[in-house]
Amino acid sequence: MSHQRASPVRRVYGEALPNTTGGMPMSRTVILGAGIAGHTAALHLRRMLGKEHEVVVVSPNSQWNWIPSNIWVGVGQMTAKQVLFPLAPVYRRKGIVFHQALAVELHGEGSAEQPEPHVTVRYTDPSRRGEQARITYDFLVNATGPKLNFAATPGLGPDGGNSWSVCTAGHATEANAALHQVIDALRAGQRQTLLIGMGHGTCTCQGAAFEYTFNVEHELVKEGVRDLAEVIYITNEARLGDFGMDGMNFGYQGQVMSSQDFTESFFEERGVKAIIGAHIEAVEPGRVRYELLDGSKAEQSFDFAMLLPPFRGADLRAFDREGNDVSDQVFAPSGFMKVDADYSPKSYAEFRASDWPRTYQSAVYDNVWAAGIAFAPPHPMSEPRTTPNGTSITPAPPRTGMPSGVIGRAVAQTIAERVKHGAAGTVHTASMAEQGAACLASGGKGVFSGKAAAMTVYPIIPDKETYGELGRDTSQTFGELGLSAHWMKVMLHYLFIYKAKARPLWHLIPE
Amino acid sequence: MSNVTSFPDARKPSPREVKARSNVLVQAWRFAVLNLKMITIVTKGHH
Question: Which chain A positions have a beta carbon within 8 Å of B19's beta carbon?
Answer without folding.
Answer: none
